[in-house]
Amino acid sequence: MTGFLKGSATAMITPFNETGVDLEAFGKMMEYQIAGGTDALVVLGTTGEPSVMTDEDKQTLMRYAVEKAAGRIKIIFGTGSNCTAHAVKASVLAEKLGADGVLAVTPYYNKCTQQGLYEYYEAIAGAIKIPVICYNVPARTGVNILPETMARIAQIPNIAGIKEASGNMAQVLETARLIRGKCDLYSGEDALNLPILCAGGTAVISVISNLAPKQVKAMTTAVAAGNLDEAIALHDKLLPLTKACFTEVNPIPVKEGMNLLGFRAGAPVAPLTRLEPAHREQLASALKELGLI
């Protein structure tokens, strides 16, 4: 399927307090995104630290996100797992709770075959009616969705697209060629947002848009309108922030960035640590350049 997601989607951080998820703080972040023109929120993706959350906390956040959004913005839940049965169960729950779609990362650690990947997405998509986005991030999972495999997966009726974060533009371009007209391509790597959009990507699923939703949305709008000079200028302005947000593993920098913006983002959950002082200075400088602090 095509057309599910266009523009900018934010891979939301999850703020925590002593008792679990800080829902009040998360709600304020949602309102910041809606005011910034973001088209969709990805909740419980990599940036949201789902690997350190209980199933109960995940469900609480899912319910809250749908209720708070109240139809004003698309809500997409991360439901992928290294266990197919668990991914299916989570996807069914997401649909039941009112998600607009799900984002399913490839199975991690197990290092399944390409056929295993096809069967994994077939099982998830077959269990629900809402759109499914595949998420390719081999640096984290050890598994890479090859273009030929994605072309097969794209034939599944409710596969909406692929979030590409392989970092390999040659592969991204080949995937784009093979899935064109069958499902959509989304950028999953902020540094490559512009070239992926120019190669036919319809949306970005962004980390830095936690901090700069208006600017990321403006860049996607400029590309869609064919205003490439404007898009390039916007992308250039965002690059220092992108670099600052990946000086350490995501979401360490972006959570600190949200603290700098005045949100109650808190700290990442162990084994992740707080941002190093030198990187914090770099991040603060990038935010100042954009007029965000």
Care to describe what's here?
It is a single chain. By secondary structure, the protein is of the alpha/beta class. The chain has one domain (7-225): Aldolase class I (TIM Barrel), CATH 3.20.20.70. The protein has helices at residues 23-35, 55-69, 84-97, 114-127, 138-141, 147-153, 169-179, 193-198, 213-224, 228-244, 252-260, 277-289, and strands spanning 7-11, 16-17, 20-21, 40-43, 74-78, 101-105, 132-136, 159-164, 184-187, 203-206. α7 links the parallel β8 (159-164) and β9 (184-187). α4 (114-127) packs parallel to α6 (147-153). The mean pLDDT is 97.
How does the SSE layout of this entry go?
Blueprint: E1 7-11, E2 16-17, E3 20-21, H1 23-35, E4 40-43, H2 55-69, E5 74-78, H3 84-97, E6 101-105, H4 114-127, E7 132-136, H5 138-141, H6 147-153, E8 159-164, H7 169-179, E9 184-187, H8 193-198, E10 203-206, H9 213-224, H10 228-244, H11 252-260, H12 277-289
Parallel strand pairs: 1-4, 1-10, 4-5, 5-6, 6-7, 7-8, 8-9, 9-10
Antiparallel strand pairs: 2-3
Helix pairs in contact: 1-2, 3-4, 4-6, 6-7, 9-10, 10-12, 11-12
Adjacency order of strands in the biggest sheet: 1-4-5-6-7-8-9-10
| Count of beta strands | 10
CATH topology: TIM Barrel
* CATH fourth-tier homologous superfamily: Aldolase class I
Characterize the largest beta sheet: strand count, sense, and whether it forms a barrel: 8 strands, parallel, barrel
What is the CATH class?
A: Alpha Beta
Termini Cα gap = 40 Å
Cα gyration radius (Å): 18 Å
Number of helices: 12
The CATH architecture is: Alpha-Beta Barrel
Low-confidence stretches: none
**Percent of residues in helices:** 40-55%
Into which percentage range does the β-strand content fall?
5-15%
